[in-house]
Amino acid sequence: MTQIEVIEGEKHAREFFALEEDVQIWEFLHRFAYDETEQIAEKFTGPHPNLGRKIWKMFVRETDSRRSVSVLCTRYRKMTKNLHNMPFGTEMKLNLYYSLDIPVPEEFTREAWRCAKILLNKENLVEEFEMKTDEEVRTDIEEEYELMEGLVKKRMEKIEKEENGKLQEQRRQYYQKQKEKKQQEAEAEATAEVTVDVLPSPPDNLKKIPKKRLSSQMLENEVTAPPSKRPRVYYSVEDDVKLWTHLLSKVNSEHELNPKSGKFWKEFLGENAEKIMERKLAYHYGKMANNLHKMPFDMRMKTVLYYALHIPVESRFLEHLKSKTDVTIDENGCIVAYNSFEISGEADYIPTKKPTSRRTSRLDIY
């Protein structure tokens, strides 16, 4: 059935070729491509449909087609590109490809080789072909199936072999690690046994030698080689007394007092002292300042140190000091003015906590 499309602006309607018309054209051309008597395909000897008008006049006359000759020539050129999609058998298509010298598309090549023995030239034109018998076609299909089955089987065997190889490699690595682990454990046990048997115990005379405290060495201006690991420095009350006494001696000096700086303690430690000890004393001064009220000094000395070093006064010591003289305190709790003549030089005792025994701690004496 002919499809007709009317386009606006054109004087005539454009008619499209239906599938039935294309089939009718190919069947008409096949009469000239195949000899029914000899049952063999022949080269087209008459005027070629691509150029000749005589053959299309014959087609119009025999089929009563309303198409013009020029339209049929144009249609033929387009039809050659879709011959492999027409509803014909493989043999009929090969007859037309061979007779009309139409290039064979790649889509049709596989189908043609399955049913016929074909020889193509460089332009993909059929030079000769011979249809296979049913037995040959069946044999080729079986061989192709066996070939595909063999390829699939080989592929599966290859995959299985690779998987087995990976599994064996993983097992080998696992057992190798276990073996190395056992060897390391055995070597560690053997080393431990040898160490216990070989290493001698330290002599008794070394055990009895007491270690000298680093703080005492520092206060005596002794310089020793730094150990591989520095011991922790502990300060006794006697050490703190020496430090406060040194600070008191510097109160009336012209130099600015800055005990929080390591350089301030260089004179106290000596020229050969290590800088780390200077920094440690500067750090220890902060702790000393919090416990000045507990030192075994009289009230006058404590007050002078609080005032000169600008240290915040401990609350209970401040109450006791206010009971003795007039004291002015700034917002930080430091003494800014006081009457030194009203402070006695005797040591006073103010307990910082409830007594737990008859013995009085030296750190609780002002």
UniProtKB/TrEMBL annotation:
<protein>
    <recommendedName>
        <fullName>SPK domain-containing protein</fullName>
    </recommendedName>
</protein>
<dbReference type="InterPro" id="IPR006570">
    <property type="entry name" value="SPK_dom"/>
</dbReference>
<dbReference type="InterPro" id="IPR053367">
    <property type="entry name" value="G-alpha_activating_GEF"/>
</dbReference>
<feature type="compositionally biased region" description="Basic and acidic residues">
    <location>
        <begin position="163"/>
        <end position="185"/>
    </location>
</feature>
<feature type="domain" description="SPK">
    <location>
        <begin position="239"/>
        <end position="345"/>
    </location>
</feature>
<feature type="region of interest" description="Disordered">
    <location>
        <begin position="163"/>
        <end position="192"/>
    </location>
</feature>
<dbReference type="Pfam" id="PF04435">
    <property type="entry name" value="SPK"/>
</dbReference>
